[in-house]
Model the fold of this input.
Amino acid sequence: MKLRTDLAVEAREIAGEDVGGVDFVQYSENGLDISRLEVKTRKARQQLGKEEGTYITVELPSLTDNFTETDERLITIGKEIRRLLPVNGLVLVVGLGNPEITPDSLGPKTSSRVLATRHISGEIARSTGLDRLRPVAVMTTGVTGQTGIETGEYILSIVKRIKPNAVVVIDALASRRLERLGCTLQISDTGISPGAGVGNHRTKINKETIGVPVIAIGVPTVVDAATFASDLLSVNDPHRARQKITPQGRQMVVIPREIDLLTERASRLISFALNGALQNEFNISELVSLM
Done:
């Protein structure tokens, strides 16, 4: 049984930094520490447990510290998102998760702040300068327990109908360390498995299943309790830790006390940065006025 994490940088820490078939670089911009990890071979994929592709990790100040739409760090994060997006064409933004459960509400909260522009067209758009807006469609999926529909099936049906050039999915993630909760942002071009952070794996949402590139954005909001115990107590056997802290077989996760504040501010950060990445002909303050 493996230590559970959705973060590629942590998977590299667990597997060892000498894993072959991986390119890893680190740099800083506007006070943010950023790492870019590229999984390039099948062997590396097997060792890390991560799909082949690019994973960008941004180390943030704690999201209990506030920020504004004029923060230069939003522009930096927007640039990192834009690296993985197609240059032109319609983009579908999807908020994954359950809005009724705070640590799983990141996707719906974020998507509600993303500027939907697909419907803006015609003379009014041209006369107001809004014809420079990139077409963006936005949706939330709920979870299978609420809808009876697999999230991947739901997204695929919309993709077939509106034919976007790419899909951006936003979801809460799981980390192996408490100190990463609410202060780490991961952006990848490998898609996502909804519910993986809490062990509830659903159909993968990626280019192979959806038919277009899928960019995943997330912030860790939970730590699997057995993974946390193994890390905290230096136990090398997660199965042994799991036996101790899963009474009656119940799976448990650890969340920070201020989780409502963290998810709220993480959703604002991602939505502002994503709006800036999608609508790069406008500055973030202008986009906020349109939201």
Remarks:
- The chain has twelve helices and nine strands.
- The two ends are 45 Å apart (CA to CA).
- The first helix runs from residue 8 to 15.
- Residues 84 and 137 are 18 Å apart (CA to CA).
